[in-house]
Target: Peroxidase
Amino acid sequence: MASSNAIPIFFLLALLFGASSAQLSETFYDRTCPRLPNIVRAAVKKAIETDIRAGAKLIRLHFHDCFVNGCDGSVLLEDAPGIVSELNSPGNQGIQGLEIVDAIKAAVESECPNTVSCADILAQASKDSVDVQGGPSWRVLYGRRDSRIANKTGADSGLASPFETLVQLKKKFSDVGLGTTDLVALSGAHTFGRSRCRFFSHRFANFNNTGRPDPSLDANYRGFLQGVCSAGPDTRANFDPTTPDVFDKNYYTNLQAGKGLLQSDQELFSTAGADTIAIVNSFAAREGTFFKEFRQSMINMGNIKPLTGSRGEIRKNCRRVNSAMGGEGHDVM
Model:
């Protein structure tokens, strides 16, 4: 009788432990790396001082990491035996910032060796990138571990494309457990940063084989962009033509004026009857509303399928998995 009662108790404890190990926490590094937020913030500020696009690069890496297999640092892995990098995916064309992550990781390792995952560094660096440039702040949850694999196939199918419709965008967000408000709020990260002309020049003429420009693109803005892109398809244009290096609500007022840079941006406001229109209007009307929802959506995204407990590893070098002999890092609970 006693042994039969022990079985369900054992499984109950196992379930409770499993649930607790999967929880991320603000205090995860309080004892092992208490200065982590300060270290990362200082490195992010230094990067932005020399490259105004550094913040946008870091947050894009975090986004593209979380949408493929969850927030596990897999986007940072380069090609290696047994690993086909997600960086080879069309959705990661032109993605930049790995050298910034390297510098942040080096600063963290110098004070807290073999302790902080690359996935957690991306989460913290994204927060700092936003609030250093005028956006909201939030408390980052920690405890993610780094993947030992990459998933290029998942990146090919799961990353949002600048050429997609609202229906397609909603599907990709839904697939990772994010809703419509998350879609509109997180798209607001395009309030800073740049995009190459090859990702939006299809809007200038014969849009969707109509023989005409994209009707949702303001004609004057289209003319301006055509002038920018006359230098070539890899020329970059600001996402936000008004305050390109400040994190603010102008992304949404730009959408109202037909000045969303990417098709996928303008779809949020110009898709007839879409429920996203009211959300865009509310964010455009009050920056505090946008900041509140962006903060929560970043936390929601950061919670997508993290590796926790004994799964994964703590990479020593964010671009490659640790050696089988354990010489480049070790597991830290």
Remarks:
- The beta strands are 194-196, 236-238.
- The domain at 25-158 is CATH 1.10.520.10 (Peroxidase; domain 1).
- The CA atoms of residues 95 and 232 lie 18 Å apart.
- The chain has two domains: 25-158, 178-299.
